[in-house]
Specification:
β13 (344-347) and β14 (350-353) form a beta hairpin. Helices cover 37% and strands 18% of the residues. Mean pLDDT is 89; it is low at 37-43. It is elongated. The strands form 6 sheets. Strands 2, 3, 4, 5, 10 and 16 form a 6-stranded mixed β-sheet that branches. The N and C termini lie far apart (107 Å). The protein has 612 residues and is of the alpha+beta class. The longest helix has 34 residues, at 2-35. 40% of the residues are buried.
Length: 612
């Protein structure tokens, strides 16, 4: 009886286990076949091959329609690691012109990629020009596992504007992680416009779905291409750059370190942006890209550094225009206010030197002669007006607020990567580094663009444009128009300073007087009323030469800044270069006499012993 009971119980237990196992299998199969697409994907991968169709990248032209960047057919050599076993590597290397050591290195790099799979095509060698590819194509059948992918290569119409245009290179693992549009072997803009407008220039990929048989052979389009997708080409861009002006700017920077920026004040469009030294953009194309990129990166003069937006320098006397405007707006001075200058600012044992001129001096002639003493007194008065601002810290906060609204101390927002912000110190900075007992005398050097103050050449050019507009600016930008679209509204909105328009007229008068009889006499252009301001920025080595100006005085069409490292006085390099840039743009060409001056300036190199 007991035995029958135990047997009967065991039977039910075994039956229950069998039912549970059966139900579990059924649920699992249901999940895999109905709810999950894992097996469907695996089956599809065996039956279909998806071929990515790459779009043509958008073209780039200058403001007059002159082509700057275009595309040429090229090829990528792809490899499926699982299938390439047994390839004659010596023959392969001879065919494509690499060494066997390079072959081994390439294979190691492929295997080290984060998303590496030995069953999918991997980029082995990219951007091979059509003329170099023809020999490889004839022998491709010998190299099992290798295939060819048709792509395009960026080409540059000239050697100009490398820092503006940038370049295109293979995506990094970081790029792939940041944007799932990319996969290993794709290309992306690395610098310049190519980088900042990447999403517009790249277009949209297409795809062809090919049907394969059980042996993996392609049988044709799946459902006659019903599910294929055509690629959409990238958008074409029109830049604001004038290529003739750009060519002149790069000529004038030969043998020098520095930058030239010209802006159209009424729009904020950048007419030219040159940085010296520069490089040939074509050098970063094709299989030798890595070699040249390393060489440029190792050059002590940093040719890949766009000094116009990445270089930060003491603005020197160009900064005095901001100080004049702040003093007028804050009621610290009037146009008639005069200050003494006895070869400089002298007060309580502090001396800030200045060159000889009449004394005492009022605002307009102080701008024209670039009087250091005038602007030292102006700052000292403002920072001492504790009854107005509560403390020296309060005065400095107001001072900095003005400068930020003028475009200093923060990035302007130019549509190029890597822009630096420069430096406008605040009260907290001095409280931390000096203590709370500092005053206007302690920091008086900032009144003449020295000390802790730094700016980019772009910010200096923007100040010239702001004065030209009598109190507002548009964010400087490189792209003028986008195919079938518009530039961002931030580049079409005016930004006003905190200074009333009426005070700008005195800054304009001072800058005009600097050209007619002051420190900028070399900026005169026949037929135009040019306004300018020199800058000689003190440096641990030889002083930097700076200039900013605009023309014509009324209805201005161009504002320019020139900054030459270790160039000496502003009148030595800054003024003559700035004058040539303005003349070229206003007249469309240089006069014979000006062309001779340009050739002379081009030939003048500066020795930089610390870079040798």
């Amino acid at each position: 009886m007991s035995g029958k009971f135990n047997f009967s119980n065991r039977k039910y237990v075994i039956g229950a286990v069998a039912v549970i196992v059966t139900v579990t299998y059924i649920l699992r199969l249901f999940n895999l076949q109905i709810l999950s697409d894992e097996y469907k994907k695996n089956a599809d991968s065996n039956a279909f091959r998806k071929e990515i169709q790459y779009p043509s990248r958008g073209l780039i032209q200058d403001r007059k329609g002159q082509l700057m960047v275009f595309n040429e057919p090229s090829y990528n050599i792809m490899v499926v690691m699982q299938e390439q076993l047994g390839v004659d590597t010596a023959d392969f290397c001879r065919t494509i012109g690499i060494t066997e050591e390079e072959y081994v290195k390439k294979m190691q790099e492929i295997k080290a990629r984060r998303n590496y799979s030995r069953y999918t095509p991997q980029l082995f060698l990219g951007q091979i020009p059509a003329e170099e590819f023809s020999v490889f194509r004839e022998k491709l059948f010998r190299f099992k596992g290798f295939s060819v992918e048709k792509r395009s290569t960026r080409r540059y119409a000239s050697k100009l504007a490398a820092h503006i245009l940038g370049d295109v290179g293979e995506v990094s693992e970081h790029d792939i992680e940041e944007d799932d549009y990319y996969q290993s072997g794709d290309y992306i803009g690395k610098l310049g416009v190519e980088r900042s407008y990447e999403t517009l220039l790249r277009g949209e990929k297409g795809v062809r779905i090919m049907l394969r048989d059980v042996r993996g052979r392609t049988q044709g389009h799946y459902k006659d291409g019903q599910y294929d997708k055509e690629p959409k080409p990238g958008k074409n861009l029109t830049l604001s750059i004038d290529m003739n002006l750009q060519a002149l700017a790069e000529r004038l920077l030969q043998g020098k370190l520095g930058a030239i920026v010209a802006i159209e004040p009424s729009t904020g469009e950048i007419l030219c942006m040159a940085s010296g030294p520069t490089y040939d953009p074509d050098s970063l194309i094709g299989r030798d890209r890595g070699k040249y990129h390393k060489m440029l990166k190792n050059d002590k003069k940093s040719p890949m550094l766009n000094r116009a937006v990445m270089g930060t320098y003491p603005p020197g006397s160009t900064f005095k225009i901001t100080q004049a405007l702040i003093g007028l707006q804050e009621g610290i001075i009037t146009p008639q206010t005069t200050f003494p200058c006895s070869r400089g600012f002298n007060y309580k044992g502090l001396h800030v030197g200045c060159h000889g001129h009449g004394s005492p001096i009022a605002l307009v002639p102080a701008i024209a002669t670039s009087c250091n003493s005038y602007f030292c007194w102006n700052l000292y008065r403002m920072f001492g007006a504790t009854e107005k601002y509560g403390s020296v810290q309060g005065a400095m906060t107001r001072w900095k607020d003005h400068l930020v609204r003028m475009g200093y101390g923060y990035k302007l927002g130019v549509d190029l990567p890597g822009e630096a912000r420069g430096m406008i110190p605040n009260a907290e900075f001095y409280d931390k580094h000096i203590g709370h007992n500092w005053n206007g005398l302690t920091v008086v050097s900032i009144s003449i663009g020295q000390g802790e103050v730094t700016a980019t050449p772009l910010q200096i050019a923007n100040l010239a444009a702001t004065v030209a507009n009598r109190g507002y600016y548009f964010i400087p930008h490189i792209v003028r128009a986008v195919q079938d679209g518009q530039i961002d509204t931030i580049y079409r909105r005016p930004h006003y300073t905190m200074v009333d328009r009426k005070w700008y007229q005195y800054a304009v008068e001072g800058m005009r007087a600097a050209v007619t009889g002051g420190t900028c006499r070399g900026a005169n252009i026949p037929g135009y009323e040019v306004c300018g301001k020199t800058g000689t920025a003190q440096n641990r080595g030889h002083d930097h030469s700076a200039f900013m100006g605009f023309a014509p005085m009324n209805n201005p069409r161009i504002a320019v800044a020139v900054y030459i490292e270790n160039g000496g006085f502003g009148a030595t390099f800054g003024v003559p270069i700035g004058a040539l840039i303005m003349e070229q743009y206003l007249n469309g060409e240089l006069s014979p006499a000006s062309e001779a001056r340009a050739a002379s300036m081009q030939a003048r190199s500066i020795n930089y012993p610390y870079y040798n």
